[in-house]
Design brief:
7 strands, disordered C terminus, alpha+beta, 5-stranded mixed β-barrel, OB fold (Dihydrolipoamide Acetyltransferase, E2P)
Length: 152
Amino acid sequence: MNNQRQIIRFAIAAVIIVGTVTYLAISGANAGKSYYCTIAEMHGMGDKAYSRSLRVAGNVKPGSIHRMGPRADFILLEQGKELPVNYIGSEPPPDTFKDDAQALAMGRLGRDGVFHANQLQAKCASKYAPADPKKQAIKPATAAAMIATPTH
């Protein structure tokens, strides 16, 4: 009888521990999720856009960046749509965060229509873009020969 009670207590404790660990794993995974969407998709989400953690990409509108230490306000452009972004992070925006740079903002959309980002990634499109094949097709010697060749 005493041995049977110990087995039951052990089984109950094991079920509670496994249940707790499973709950924490699932809730932690759900909390870390963020949905990637375009600006147009985000506006089409309705009220869901206000309750989800989102990742939104676009190009930084020239002249819209206002930096204040680790904070920055700017506008993202994507397919003719604009999204005002308020970034407040633990670190200042990266060096590649400039006008016309591609940026990825992670955070939440506020009811005020401003995207409140807590993470920001940026890359300068011209710095990482592949070389233009048309420009590489004309070699300096060929270009000089074309200039020296008279046309009639």
